[in-house]
Amino acid sequence: MNQDHHGARTSDTPVPASNGTRVGVPDARRPPSPYGRVPVRPPAALRPPTPLVGVALCEDEEVFRLGLRVVLEAQPDMAVVAETAQLPDALAAAAGGGADVVVVRQGLIGESTRPLLRDLCRRGPAVLVLAEHGEEARSALVDVLQAGVRGCLPRRSAAARLVEAVRALARHEAALDPTVTGQLVRYLTALPDRADGEACPLDRLTGRQREVAALVAQGLSNEEIAGRLFLSLATVKSHLTASMRRLDVRTRTQLAVLVARERSPVASGVPAVE
């Protein structure tokens, strides 16, 4: 027992605190962290909100459009900001802001609306086309992709594939389904050959650039191409950028269409993906 400067008696024995621990004695139940002070994650209410991907739907079948909305709005990072049944209305809604991706049924894209689609691809949000079946649809799809569309899925794709494609487009990446790519290859390679003596545009590429272009035409992502050719991701991107510049195309979709159309040995130089 000791005395303080006021004469009051004090004890050397630690005093229990209100929470059950003893003042002046380290809590044996909570050993110090070997990594120092551990940062505390702020409550959800204080964290910045996750930005939502705004999606505009252009589908003239109400039941199908409702299904698209249910699938997309079930995602925590997506919101449907507009629903239309005609492409001009969808483009007008997208031009108003708020839409990062426009999902369009291919059957709603025609001769009169294709210039609007091309303008949207140049200045506005990304476009995901839901492709139809049939020979006529494949023919029309070539024009759609040449307009600058970076995303294309079969209209009856799985819900998970739709969500994945919307996220990829929102990240400014391409979203080409291998099934659609295969249909385009079969259609384009059935077209007449070039005239004798006409130069092949793919001859402007180096051997490695031709290999990368061939795998793009097969629907592979940059990561998959890097693994297939044992290259770094940065090297694949460099070859892809150089190839697009030499061939005067703006998107990997246009590159894939060009490779398939030319029926060059580039396509047969790399084994097809199973």
Summarize the structure.
The protein is an alpha/beta fold and 274 residues long. It is built from 11 helices and 8 strands. The protein is 42% helix and 12% strand.
Report the average pLDDT across residues. Answer: 76
Helix fraction, binned, reads 40-55%
Q: For the report, how would you describe the main beta sheet?
A: 6 strands, parallel
Instruction: Give the strand content.
Output: 5-15%
Class by SSE composition: alpha/beta
**Highest-level CATH class of the largest domain:** Alpha Beta
| Structural shape | globular
Name the CATH homologous superfamily of the largest domain: Response regulator
Our count of domains comes out at 2
Low-confidence stretches: 264-274
SSE order, as H and E?
A: EEEHEHEHEHEHEHHHHHH
Radius of gyration, in Å, reads 29 Å
Query: How is the CATH topology of the largest domain named?
Result: Rossmann fold
Identify the CATH architecture of the largest domain.
3-Layer(aba) Sandwich
Termini separation comes to 84 Å
Widest sheet, order of strands: 4-3-5-6-7-8
Count of beta strands: 8
> How many helical elements?
11
